[in-house]
Amino acid sequence: MKKYNLVVAAVSVLLGLLIIYLSRNLAGWDDNGVPGENYWPSIIAYLFVGLGVLQFLEVWLSPHINKDKTVDLGSAVVRKAYLAAAVSVVYGGLLTAAGFVLATLAFVPTMNLLMGERRLWASALLAVGVVGVIYVFFALVFNTTLPTSVFLE
Questions:
Q1: pLDDT tens, 65-74?
Q2: 73-118 pLDDT, tens per residue?
Q3: Which SS3 state, helix, strand or coil, does residue 99 take?
Q4: Could you give the CA distance from residue 141 to residue 14 in angstroms, rounded to a whole number?
Q5: Which residue from 86, 108, 8, 22 is spatially nearest to 51, judged by alpha carbons?
Q6: Which among 70, 100, 113, 139 is least buried, having the fewest CB atoms inside 10 angstroms?
Q7: DSSP code per residue over 102-122
């Protein structure tokens, strides 16, 4: 378990540093004190780095905590997590190809099904609700554009 915790800590720190590097040229704050496009990537990056360092410190300072625990990366639950990650990657691609509305209408029921929801009407209702709420807040309240299909541009 110690080896896996160290790998996760290192990956977390490296991912945080990569985000910091990739967002280095984004605008920070404007003249009115409004956070710019670097705001959320910076918060996420520093969280990755900080949590990775905390995990490393846990392994180093308290090695007895996870000493007798084993890791099974092939169990059914872990395979389901891998599938959820793959579905999320496909969703990221669909955001560009199909736009926010269609991609999210496909993504939410798929993740619901993966998490065990078998009532299709509940998944469909949730998908429409999620799309509706996000659209209202981002497009109408915040006046922000949501991803549109590359075919509709």
A1: 777 777 777 8
A2: 788 888 999 999 999 999 999 998 999 999 999 999 999 999 999 9
A3: strand
A4: 36
A5: 8
A6: 70
A7: HHHHHHHHHHHHHTT---HHH
Report the C-alpha gap between 35 and 33 in whole angstroms: 6
Name the phi and psi angles at 41, rounded to 5. -60, -35
DSSP for 5-35, written as a single string: HHHHHHHHHHHHHHHHHHTTTS--B-TTS-B
Closest CA to 107 of 96, 119, 95: 95
Residue 44's pLDDT is 95
Which pair of structure tokens corresponds to residue 76? 């059914």
What single letter denotes the amino acid at residue 10?
A: A
Looking at this protein, which amino acid is placed at residue 126? L
- Reported residue count of the chain is 153
15 in Cβ contact with 41 (< 8 Å): no
SS3 63: coil
Token pair 């496009």: residue: 37
d(CA 44, CA 93): 21
